[in-house]
């Protein structure tokens, strides 16, 4: 009987601790573009329509509420510095490429926690991201 009571107390303690840890994790609003996003899939078509979605390589991008954009140096989106959501399907971006200032539009779709970005590519390309964290503060 003593052993069963100790086991029940240990089980109760673990249950309470896991409940506390769960409550500390903030809920992600996957319907907002602001936040840190991790690449989960990429599609780069060779130009004949045969491109398929393949696993991503884990790059992380960030959209800040003050319209600052950050990407890892190895990212295909590296060089973008600012963004503005211009419609339900487009994001205007500005940045640097080969020491020149550039601006262009990314097509995007935000659906069920997946952010899909389509940069301007001749042969068709796209990237799918999942949200890692909210970014409420400006960079």
Mean pLDDT comes to 83
Distance between the termini: 58 Å
Given the structure, what is the number of helices?
1
Strand percentage: 35-45%
Brief summary of the model shown:
The protein is of the alpha+beta class. The chain has one helix and nine strands, in the order H-E-E-E-E-E-E-E-E-E. The protein has one helix at 2-24; strands at 35-44, 54-55, 60-63, 69-71, 80-85, 90-97, 100-111, 114-118, 125-133.
Descriptive notes:
The protein is an alpha+beta fold and 139 residues long. The protein has one domain: Lipocalin, CATH 2.40.128. The protein is 17% helix and 42% strand. The chain has 1 helix and 9 strands. Strands 1, 2, 3, 4, 5, 6, 7, 8 and 9 form a 9-stranded antiparallel β-sheet that branches. The longest helix has 23 residues, at 2-24. The N and C termini lie far apart (58 Å).
Secondary structure elements and their pairing?
Elements: H1 2-24, E1 35-44, E2 54-55, E3 60-63, E4 69-71, E5 80-85, E6 90-97, E7 100-111, E8 114-118, E9 125-133
Antiparallel strand pairs: 1-2, 1-3, 1-9, 3-4, 5-6, 6-7, 7-8, 8-9
Q: What attributes characterize this protein structure?
A:
9 strands; 17% helix; alpha+beta; globular; Lipocalin; 42% strand; 139 residues
